[in-house]
Amino acid sequence: MEFRRRAELSLQPLSKPPKESPHAAESVLALLECGPACACRHGSGAGGCLARTTQRGVRVRLAVAPVPGKGWGVRALEPLPRGAFVCDYTGEYLNTSDARARLAAYDAAGAGHALLVARVVLPSATSALRLNIDATRRGNVARFVNHSCDGGNLEAVLVMAKGELLPRVALFAARDIAPGEELTFSYCGRSKAAAPAGGGAAGAADRARGAGAAAGGRQHAFTPCACGTPACYGFLPSEFV
Predict the structure, then answer these.
(1) Inside any domain, residue 127
(2) What is the pLDDT of residues 16-54, one digit of tens each?
(3) Is 47 part of a structural domain of the chain?
(4) Number of domains making up the chain
(5) Which range scores top for mean pLDDT: 24-33, 94-103, 174-183?
(6) Is residue 113 over pLDDT 70?
(7) Is 52 within the bounds of a domain?
(8) Sorted alphabetically, which InterPro entries does this protein's record hold (predicted)?
(9) CB-CB contact of 133 with 92 (8 Å)
(10) HEC profile for the chain?
(11) % of the chain residues with pLDDT over 70
């Protein structure tokens, strides 16, 4: 897996809890759960609160395994229905200055990383909360999930639990997933994952030059993308953070 994540997920929280069970997430971009401030029963047995879907750990069988052309990746070992919770994206929560320092250190060392930046749009729609989650040194299986330019088969969902200070990012199945299928998601969010005009590796250089111009002409090393989908941009999503 190429650990280079600089694109920002843009996640819009819900203003109120969904009417349906959290088990039927079905590609929502935010999920409200019970948490430490709730008096409900925490557990998965009889009488346990159903509004704690992401708080029970990984409940599906997954395998970290080599993927041709990509290095490491994650495959499902059982059928995953659309809306199924797969795993949290866990790691170290950093402030923005520390995140930028980490990125500079990773680049100076020529090392990859698994630092995910999620920009959470607040209900007022006039401001946003930025989450910097670095899974490079401390993380879970999610750090091995590869990028796909077409959006992949997983959806990044913002999870807010009552009584918790910071939201979390969780991965849910965006469609039915078959056993043995590689799990992927778009590092820049599914809303931005669309086939570009003149897509594919052939247009990567032009798009890279355009991105550089948009960033004020600053030079940036783009990492080639190996997702292999028809929507492939030719390089992994990247933004100046």
Answers:
(1) yes
(2) 333 333 333 333 367 888 888 888 866 555 456 878 888
(3) yes
(4) 1
(5) 174-183
(6) yes
(7) yes
(8) H3K9_Histone-Lys_N-MTase, Post-SET_dom, SET_dom, SET_dom_sf
(9) yes
(10) CCCCCCCEEEECCCCCCCCCCHHHCCCCCEEEECCCCCCCCCCCCCCCCCCCHHHCCCCCCEEEEEECCCEEEEEECCCECCCCEEEECCCEEECHHHHHHHHHHHHHHCCCCCEEEEEEECCCCCCEEEEEEECCCCCCHHHHCEECCCCECEEEEEEEECCCCCCEEEEEECCCECCCCECEECCCCHHHCCCCCCCCHHHHHHHHHHHHHHCCCCCCCCCECCCCCCCCCCECCCCCC
(11) 68
pTM of the entire structure?
0.76
In a domain, 66, yes or no: yes
Q: Please, what is the end-to-end C-alpha distance for the chain in angstroms? A: 21
Domain range for 145 is 8-190
Report whether pLDDT(173) > 80. Answer: yes
Question: Length of the chain, please?
Answer: 241
Residue 113 is part of a domain; what is its CATH number?
2.170.270.10
Per-residue pLDDT tens digits for 54-96: 888 899 999 999 999 888 999 999 999 999 999 999 999 999 9
